[in-house]
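Module 6 notes. Inverse folding takes a fixed backbone as the condition and produces residue identities as the prediction. Think of it as a translation problem where the source language is geometry and the target language is the twenty amino acids. Below is one complete input and output pair. Work through it position by position during the lab.
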């Protein structure tokens, strides 16, 4: 079954991809998983938004702003797989280009399937985050920063920089698991040598970490501008 072997036997999962590069089932599994996770996280995100908007909006305006209507839920359901596919295509293109430097050929579709499959560990990270927030309770949510409990090096080190905080937060066990799966997958379907797959996976992983940190830094700047 798609995705099940990823836990017990990653090599079998990636061998399946190597034989038949069908990335669509992995995309659907991830999209549905994120959609369910978003429903779980909705009360916490709504509370964080309400507390932040309370500084410059009236209560009735806050209620209108934080109400998630059915059309928006449908848009989210449609947009999620599109965003996942765009990201996977981007990183697959990078992997194809880098492996070409070693004279290796990676099928673009296989690259997408490997990246989507490896990314499933982030669903587990999301579940862990949701469980932690549920245990803490809504009363312990004081702002957007509380929606991301520390799971990585941010447990040991803190920084006032949103960029550096994101980097530290992404140095965690789930990111390490993602990197190992990505290295194994690229080695199986394209590189044929572990060191080549590991090197390309490292570049793809680091680009993703820095891109997310840049996004967090930008969002932090925008938030401060409104406060």
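Target side of the pair, the amino acids:
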């Amino acid at each position: 079954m798609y995705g099940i072997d990823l836990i017990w036997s990653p090599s079998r999962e990636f061998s399946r991809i190597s034989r038949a590069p069908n990335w669509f089932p992995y995309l659907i599994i991830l999209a549905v998983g994120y959609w369910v996770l978003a429903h779980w996280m909705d009360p916490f995100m709504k509370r964080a938004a309400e507390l932040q908007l309370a500084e410059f909006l009236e209560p009735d305006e806050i209620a209108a702003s934080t109400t998630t209507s059915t059309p928006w839920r449908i848009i989210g359901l449609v947009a999620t797989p599109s965003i996942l596919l765009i990201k996977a295509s981007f990183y697959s293109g990078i992997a194809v280009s880098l492996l070409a430097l070693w004279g290796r050929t990676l099928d673009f579709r296989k690259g997408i399937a490997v990246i989507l499959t490896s990314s499933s560990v982030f669903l587990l990270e999301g579940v862990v985050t949701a469980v932690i927030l549920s245990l803490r309770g809504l009363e312990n949510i004081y702002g957007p920063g509380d929606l991301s409990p520390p799971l990585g090096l941010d447990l040991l080190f803190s920084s006032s920089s949103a960029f550096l905080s994101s980097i530290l937060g992404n140095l965690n066990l789930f990111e390490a698991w993602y990197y190992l799966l990505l290295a194994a997958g690229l080695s199986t379907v394209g590189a044929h040598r572990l060191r080549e797959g590991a090197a390309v996976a490292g570049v793809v992983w680091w680009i993703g970490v820095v891109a997310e940190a840049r996004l967090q830094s930008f969002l932090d700047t925008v938030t401060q501008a409104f406060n």
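Reference fact for the lab report: The chain has one domain: 8-226.
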